[in-house]
User: What shape does this take?
Amino acid sequence: MTTLVAILGLALLILVHEAGHFLTALAVGMRPRKFYVGFPPPLLRTRRNGVEYGIGMIPLGGYVKIPGMYRPAGRDLSRWFARAEQEDASLEPSLGSLAATLDRSDYDAAQAEIAALGRKLEGAGLTPVARRPAEKGVEELADGVGPDAYWRQPAWKKIAVIFAGPGTNLLLAIVLFAGVFMVGTGAYRLGFALQPDGQNASAVVAEVLDGHPADRAGLRAGDRIVAIDGRAVTAGNQIPDRIGSSAGRPVTLTVERDGRRVVLPQATAARDEGDSAPQALWQSLRVTGEVTKEIGLSLSRLVHGEGRHDISSPVGIVRGSEQALEQGARQYLSVLGLISLSLALLNLLPLLPLDGGHIFFSLLEAVRGRAVAREVYERFSAIGIALVLMLFFIGLTNDVGRIGGG
Assistant: This one.
C-alpha cells in the first residue's frame, strides 16, 4: 500500500506540472488540443471547446498536447504520407506542392493546401495502415501552421507557457514545505537547526530562530553543542532526542565557542505546535533556497565528474517516498516537496526537450529577431535526449546498487 501511495505521489507531481502548462496555454490563447490524466491511449475521453479531455490507460502523471511545438518542414511529410503516396499516386502532386510551400515558409497558403489534402484523402482508396498516419499528418500539420501554434507566438507567451510547468512544481514545493511547518511535530524543541554532515546532522548549530528558547538562552550559529545537562554529546543525532525527552523540563546546553567552553543559561523546550502562516511561509522559502543551492552544487559537481552518487531514478524516488511514508505523513509531505522542487529545477536545465531548453531557444530567437533553424533544434534535441538518458541510467544504477546493498 505504501508503494502505491508513493507512486501516486510522484504521478501527482507530474500531473501538476502538465496542468501548469495546460492552464497557462489556455490563459494566453494558445489552445491545447489534449489534456489527459495519465498517458494515452485513452480509457475515457470527451471533447469540449476544441480540447480533448481524457483519462489515459497508463496511470502515471498527465499529458498535454500544445499545437505546433516545432516549425513544420517539407521533409516531415514522408513520416505521415509515404505509405499513402505508394497506394495512391494521385496524392503525389498535392504532397509535392505542400512540401514546397512549407519550405518557403508560406504558412497561410499551407493552411489551404492542408485542408485540400484532407478532403482528397477522404475520397482516396487507402488501406487502414496508410490512412491512419495520413489523417494524423493532416491534423498535425494543420495544428503546426495554425495561428495558435506554439512556434508562431511571441516570446513572452512561449516562455510563460513553458515556465508554468516547473513554476507550478516550485509553487507546490513551497506550499508543501509551509504546510509541514504549520502542522508541527508535537515534539519539544528549543528552536535551532544543526548543520548537515552527509546524511546526518552534525553537532554544530547552523541557525537559531529569533525569539525561541535557544535564542533567549544565548545560543549562536556556529556553536558546537558538546553537552546537555552535563552529559557529553558524541553525535549530532543525540541532540534532538535529548531535548525532546526533556518534555518541557529546563535543560542546560554546554557549547564550544571560539575555542572555549561556555555553559548557557537554562532553556525550556517548547512543544512544536507548528508555526503561524507567515512564519511557515518564511521557513518554507528558506528551505527552498537552501535545497535549490544544494541541487545546483550537485549538478556542478557532476559536470566536474563528481557527485554521480547523488542522482536517483524514478525507482529510487518511489523507494525514498515509501520509506518517508512509513515514518509518517509529515515526513512524506517533506519528501514530496523535495521531489517537486527537484523536478522544477531539473526541468529548467537549458536542454531540449526539457522546459529549460525551450525557454533558452525562445529567448535566443527573441534576441536574434529571427527563428533558429530547424536543424539546430534537432541537433540540440539529440544531445539533450542523450544527456537525459545518461542521467537516468546513472540514477538507475545507483538505485539498483542501493537496493542490492540493503
About this structure: The first strand starts at residue 34 and ends at 48.
